[in-house]
Amino acid sequence: MPRFLLVFVCLLATLNQAQASDWPEFLGPGGTAHSTEVVPTTWNESDNLTWKVNLPGSGSSSPIIVGDRIIVTCYVAEGTTPQRQVLCFDKNTGEQLWSADFPIDYREDGYQGYITEHGYASNTPVTDGENVFVFLGKGGVHCLDLNGRKAWSVDVGKESSNRRWGSAASLVLFENMVIMNAAEESKAIMALDKNTGKVVWRQEAGMLELTYGTPRVVSTGDGNAELVISVPSEIWSLNPRTGKLNWFAESPMTGNVSPSVIVDGDTVYSFGGYRASGSIAVRVGGDDDVTDSHVAWTNRSSSYVATPLLHEDQFYWIDDRGIAYFTSSKDGEVIYRERVNNLESGRPVYASPILIGDHVYVVTRRSGTLVYRPGDSFAPIAQNKFEFDDSDFNASPAVSDGKLYLRSDQALYCVSKND
Length: 419
Fold this sequence. Notes:
Layout: H1 3-17, E1 34-35, E2 49-54, E3 64-66, E4 69-76, E5 83-90, E6 96-103, H2 115-118, E7 126-127, E8 131-135, E9 141-145, E10 150-154, E11 172-174, E12 177-182, H3 183-186, E13 188-193, E14 199-204, E15 216-219, E16 225-231, E17 234-238, E18 245-250, E19 262-264, E20 267-272, E21 278-283, E22 288-289, H4 291-294, E23 295-299, E24 309-311, E25 314-318, E26 323-328, E27 334-339, E28 354-356, E29 359-363, E30 369-372, E31 382-384, E32 398-400, E33 403-407, E34 411-415
Parallel strand pairs: 1-28, 18-22
Antiparallel strand pairs: 2-34, 3-4, 4-5, 5-6, 7-8, 8-9, 9-10, 11-12, 12-13, 13-14, 15-16, 16-17, 17-18, 19-20, 20-21, 21-23, 24-25, 25-26, 26-27, 28-29, 29-30, 30-31, 32-33, 33-34
């Protein structure tokens, strides 16, 4: 078969696997946190709630959607042996289709500190349309088909950072590889062959400690790609096919980095750091140290946990102190900063915002979902709360076919317009 025809056939097969209505990874297609769909802006127990199913355990991982299936992970403490579960439901009816159990027969970090806030199921799965790949921290990475049958499992380490805050990063796919930030488990970034689980490359570095964000793939103008991740004090670009370092830039975030990097064309943005927080914009490309040549700006404003939403030259988020931020993507300067009213005390927001149609949706932990229009000021049009669920809502939503999906430590919800 001629090379050009082979490439066309492979591309067509990929397009057939990925459906427009899928929400295949953390923050949706490409991790952009954008959806052109239209979903309700208001809901409660009796209005626009299509279905609700109770979950067997807790979790901060976000649901993903492939075809008519919605998939989520949980930590189940009931019984003699705690376990993590992967559960699959019909996205239209909420009927459970299958579950896969992964017993915890190894030593986890103690249930203390920040682990009590996000739990033991924080990593969002990813799908290529044929299989589902799940990262269970010290429980490894696993491949299941869409009927829940296990294809392979790989141990990626059972270490702990010096803070013992637990695992957080989600998986990404690139070509025939599934890539993970296993900083917590082994101070490594790894790529596995998605068909076999065989290690394709592994990059270890002590600087990865306290790196909790999900890496992102950036397509460059010359047809190549870069894998970008933000670590304490630097931002790195790796060759996603080999794991070799392309370039690095110094960043102001010298503390732990939890938000994922944000990609916009040939520019990547990173937020984070605690206690030394900040943000940075870097143009991709270059070699070795690009701090002086490719950094567009740095700033001290930051999100500690949530990944900010980029929309029309502005970033939007509510941080884990309950403060709404809007900043400019052109220079990082703050456009708006105000404390949000009607939020419970403590750390009220862990989830990342997403743009659905013309509205920004921010899930708070215990005070419902805030809905507002992008702009230069924060003016919510709705604050939607399920009064019967007082557990934590730490996951970011998923969207598909005019339906919004929310998960708490107690239940999975489907919100759509009532007929």
